[in-house]
Amino acid sequence: MDWQTRITVNPNVLVGKPIIKGTRLAVEFIIDLLAQGWSIDEILRNYPGITVADIQACLSYASAALKSEKVYAISA
């Protein structure tokens, strides 16, 4: 999934949070809905301006963000 074509960051929209292009729906919001147990069909019913591909792009974006995250051990 090429999330770059569907996810955008604009400092003038939602304080620069990544959003689904052409909407004000943040990637974080869609991921939270899925984490709360919403099905893809429920999301699409409640937010008819997005598609399955948009939801997949949100998941791909989150995956890429986690893969690029660096974790360092801190000694006590």
What do you see in this structure?
With 76 residues, the chain is mainly alpha-helical. Helix content is 43%, strand content 5%. It is globular. The mean pLDDT is 94.
Write the layout of secondary structure elements.
Elements (H helix, E strand, L loop, with lengths): L6 E2 L10 E2 L6 H9 L4 H7 L5 H17 L8
Antiparallel strand pairs: 1-2
Helix pairs in contact: 1-3
Radius of gyration (Å): 14 Å
Strand content: 5-15%
Q: Name the shape in a single word.
A: globular
- H-E order: EEHHH
In brief, what are we looking at here?
This protein is mostly helical and 76 residues long.
Question: What are the salient characteristics of this protein?
Answer:
about 80 residues; mainly alpha; globular
